[in-house]
Amino acid sequence: VRERARRLVTGMVSNHPDGHGDLVSELSGPLPLQVICDMMGIPEADHQQIFHWTNIILGFGDPDLTTDFEEFMKVAIDIGGYATALAEDRRAHPRDDLTTALVAAEVDGERLSSSEIASFFILLAIAGNETTRNAISHGVLALTRYPEQREIWWNDFATHTPTAVEEIVRWASPVVYMRRTTTRDVEVGGVTIAAGDKVTMWYASANRDETKFDNPWLFDVTRTPNHHVGFGGGGTHFCLGANLARREIAVVFEELRQRIPDIAVSGTPSMLLSSFIHGIKTLPVSWSAPA
Predict the structure, then answer these.
(1) What is the three-state SS of 162-209?
(2) pLDDT at res. 60
(3) Domain architecture of the chain: domains with CATH
């Protein structure tokens, strides 16, 4: 993670000697994608294709990406086919990667089928990419809007990083909501919900709940406690990649602090047209050139 982050920050600075660039295309987009692709053993030559596919899957409905349902379905088929082929390759040629681990995994004598591995692949490639990308982007945006919080964090980085990372996830709420199906009758807030009903959990709203957070509309890198639901509601539905996301966010901001500590948003963010993903498509930033 650190080597990837360092290389991307260095590249962004080198590519833009005038100190102006787009955070999403240069850093926050490539990093989580490259890390998850490395873990799964996806060749670097295919990274951009995976990036395109995940953008279409989660950006469907945004005119800048696609509103064509046929294109959406084609991408879903293509990414599934790619994952199936990758799984079959690892059955024949095992490597030291996550795809091989999934292929070799066995529980009670049963192994995952190639189609099941393809489903895991889509989950990891999409969920492990888009959400962290947007958390990093929203984090830079928050530090721009709340410069006093940047100063607090930068002045004692090691102490405040654990709480700052959690606050970035709370503040960003990369996944806006999730729908579940109730397994039994239950009463919530005086309302009876029957078994089999569809229930929507609005993570973005819960992360601004005045009864759970002091001053929830303030970005506070020292916030403690911070029982946000940015990684889901816990239990079996807790985010599988939470620790990886935390690591990526922490490392990115450490590299930014060391190389270009005054990086700030310099233009209007282009937001993803989506009710599901709190996404930023482009984020103009500027910084002072390192000495």
Answers:
(1) HHHHHHHHHHHCCECEEEEECCCCEEECCEEECCCCEEEEEHHHHCCC
(2) 87
(3) 2-172+218-286 (1.10.630.10)
